[in-house]
Each structure stands twice: as C-alpha cells, then as structure tokens.
Amino acid sequence: MKPLSFFNKGVFFVNSLFATALLLAYLLPYIPPSTFPFLSILSLGMPILLILNITFLIYWIVKLRKQFLLSFLILLLGFNHILSLYKFGVEQYTKKPSDVKLLSYNVRQFNRYNWIEADTVTKQIIQFVGDQKPDILCFQEYDHREDVSFSSFKNQYRVLLDREERFGQAILTNYPIINKGAIGFENSNNNAIYTDLLIAKDTVRVINIHLESLKINPSVSEFHEKNRQRLVGRMSTSFKKQEVQVQKILENLNNCPYKSVICGDMNNSAFSYVYRKLAQNHVDAFKEKGESFGKTFVFDFIPLRIDAILVDESMEVKAFDSHPEIRYSDHYPISCVFSLTSDN
Predict the structure, then answer these.
(1) CA 138, CA 256: separation in Å to the nearest integer?
(2) Considering the entire predicted model, what is its pTM?
(3) pLDDT tens across 137-150, in order?
C-alpha cells in the first residue's frame, strides 16, 4: 500500500487530535466538575466530536486506508454515547387511559422581556399546552402574570424565586398532590421543586429541576476571541455549582420512599457528570423512544439536548417527543408518555 500523501498525513494528525479529545470526553461523566471544571466544557462538544470522528471514519474507509481503525475503535468504545446523541424513529403510540403524559418546558418567563418579537407568545404556549393535554405540566422559568392562566389544572404548585416573587418553577396537574416542597440552591436564582402525586393506587414523586445556567448566548458574537475567555470562566463556575445542586437533588431522592420522575432543564448535556448522577436508577425517555438528535436548546452550532425526562426504571416509557417546531422560548418543550409498571 502506498504511503500517505502529505495532505493525508495532515488529515490523520487532525483526526488523532479529535479522537483523543473524544476519548477524554468519554471520561468526563465520571469526573466531578469541581476537579477539572474547564475540561467539563468538552461534554457540551461531545456531539461535534462524535460527528467529526464518524466523518473521519467514512473518509478513511472511502480511501481504503487502515487509518479508519483509529476513529472506528474510539467510536466503538463509546457506542453508548452515540445512542445518546441520535435515535432513529419509533412507531407512533396511542396513549391509553392508564398512561401518564408529562410535558416539560423552559418557557423563558413567557417572553417577558421580548426576546422574541411577538406579542402572542403567552397565548401560543397556552394553546400548545391545551393541544398536548398533559397529565403533568412542569415549567421552568415560569412567570406569574395576569395573562398566564392554566386554569384547567386543578392542582398547581409554584415556587417563585426573585425578590418580587415573579418567576421560578411550577408543577401543574389534576392528580392529587399529597406532599410538595422545594430544593433550594445556595447563591443561585435556580432551584428544584417536587410534588408527590397520587396516581391510581401509586404515589409518584415528580421533581422539576432547573440547574445553574451556563449563561450561553446562542449568537456568533459570543464566540469571538474577546468574549470567549469570559464565557469559559462563567461555564466553569456553573458546572461546579451544578455538581452541588445535583447532590441536593439526590439527597431528596434518597429520602423518598416513592417511585420518581425527574424532568426539566439540566443546563448540561447527556454526556455530563450531572446527567449521569441524575439518571441513576432512571431511564432516559429520549433514549427509549426519542427520534433524531432530540435537540432542546436553540443553538446554531451544536444539537444540544440539555432538557430531559428521566423516568423511574420500574416504569415503562411508551412515547417521547421533542417539539422543535415550538419556537416560543430559547428551549423547545419535551413530552413523555409512560406507564407506572413495566410490561416486561
């Protein structure tokens, strides 16, 4: 076989760099962000690293070169990560009366500050919720205003955080709420709230989370050199805060005698330490019944899935949908249908 050309030697060198970065990123879910907060940023870039290594793999196969083995072996080693990145479509499922449908949505305060140039965002979100008919509705960045009304839900639990008690998290449902509470985060405008719901003869704890924001502005200017250093610093600080916040959520779960569902805005990817900790003893609804990249955040460069619904492993996920056509916030809503017991 002929030796590599000068150009292909350069390609393989770049391939080696991205393969090494991907291998390092595989380790991040097992390393607390407080240890290497800067490296934790790689977890957000995992989709790009996977796609690049797949591209290099195809390139070398087309060239009939043994260099394909580098990316092939790295991708094989992290095959489960590929399953977290992309899912092929599944058959449509018709919800049964005994099933539970949960909808989670970071509504960005219902466009209070006119991030979207439209006067009808609140009405459109209310209409969307009405069309979806969820049994449980979880909002992050819920804004309590006169024009925000979801009166079809008999039981509503809201915890509003800022000084004017204007916005926070909310859980709305028609199931009886037998217990409720908030999980406060120190030095943060975010929190988690929970309700214990009586569903048929079962009690289920629903935890609605909003972890520390990474404060990413999804615009090209944010990544110009003069802003990049500040952005990395902010994100590193946020990753460390998220680690502490997740520990408080896990403490709540450890003291909970019921099955649980965790949903909301993780502000982190499915390749991160905080996701791995939250997903313990739970099933990721996207990985079970999702489709495509499951993108949940409006971001041009990377298909970020930073919102999730994690269902107790004793339950069964029947359907999952992300709704990228719903552009009323910087997040897309996600919904899941599950049954309280597995058919397996």
Answers:
(1) 20
(2) 0.91
(3) 999 999 988 778 89
